[in-house]
Specification:
Two copies of one chain form a homodimer. Chain A has four helices and 15 strands. Chain A is an alpha/beta fold. In chain A, strands 2, 3, 4, 5, 6, 7, 8, 9 and 10 form a nine-stranded mixed sheet that branches. In chain A, strands 1-14-11-13-12-15 form a six-stranded mixed beta barrel. In chain A, a hairpin with a 6-residue loop joins strand 3 and strand 4. The first copy, chain A, starts with 5 loop residues before the first strand and ends with a strand.
Amino acid sequence: MMGEKKLPIALSNRHLHLSQEHIEILFGEGYELNKFKDLSQPGQFAAQEKVDLVGPKGTLKGVRVLGPARPNTQIEISLTDGFVLGVTPPVRDSGDVAGSPAVKIVGPKGEVQLKEGVLAASRHIHMHTDDAEKFGVEDKQRVKVRTTGERAVVFENVLVRVHPTFALEMHVDIDEGNAAGIKNGELVELITE
Amino acid sequence: MMGEKKLPIALSNRHLHLSQEHIEILFGEGYELNKFKDLSQPGQFAAQEKVDLVGPKGTLKGVRVLGPARPNTQIEISLTDGFVLGVTPPVRDSGDVAGSPAVKIVGPKGEVQLKEGVLAASRHIHMHTDDAEKFGVEDKQRVKVRTTGERAVVFENVLVRVHPTFALEMHVDIDEGNAAGIKNGELVELITE
């Protein structure tokens, strides 16, 4: 039955993950991120901290930092954001930053000039191991997802990530969410064919 | 054969159509729009003139006017643009402006406070009568269109407009173009099933 393959979707606004080294350059020695609110994925949170991103053509002010700190700094923006900054982020899976464009990060206590790290995150689904079994899909499989409504689309080439700590949710960026006319928490349909 | 149902796609950036009355308020008595360049649809052109759009939350500066003058002023923006202005444009077919949000238009010689007229244009295909016959579709039919590439999508609910003066082209807005990772002139596939 189709009803068994429904899952919630969420729109990811521009954000960044910071290394502890970069957190201390931007916010001060020994600084730790402060939680603003929990995100849907266990352990992940939106931090109170925001920074400015400065590109060759323009600036995005007040971009939210997500926590906890990660081994490598990574910035996730939409293609629309890229026009504002003057960089073209490649559409990549999280972590795959090699050769991606650079921007300058400006915090209250300092600045970081990146060498790379700006991506447009590939649309993807976080899935608990039990959900993957129920849906009959595997980690790293690519699936299709159908949305409903006036701007209905089928997103193809959607990456599935399966892990026992993940909560079931599809993530798209703001361009993709607007193109489909969807709202946070709306249900979409997984198509494996 | 699939190859017979290919057509070019174009990304429409934010723009507006103005009534002659509004042109004269914004640019001066007796003013006529000046052509910047022809558009793909015969007789339509991007004008040299630009205006600012002022919403309750923010301003979009330098928005392009398209010509020629129309009976009614209409502003076509993306949902992303709507966030900047602080209005939520309904997704509508061109001309269907009843009850849509209002903004203020600011030109070099005057201002117009609209009562309505801000839309996110429905994705649509302009099609010459001969193309419609070849593709086996009719005016006002809704079809699906598949794009290719890393961000491949199927756009559902695509309005077909057929007229002997139309040139074959699909139009989407910048959100939709970015969501699909497409560029102007790329070929997409019409699906009628």
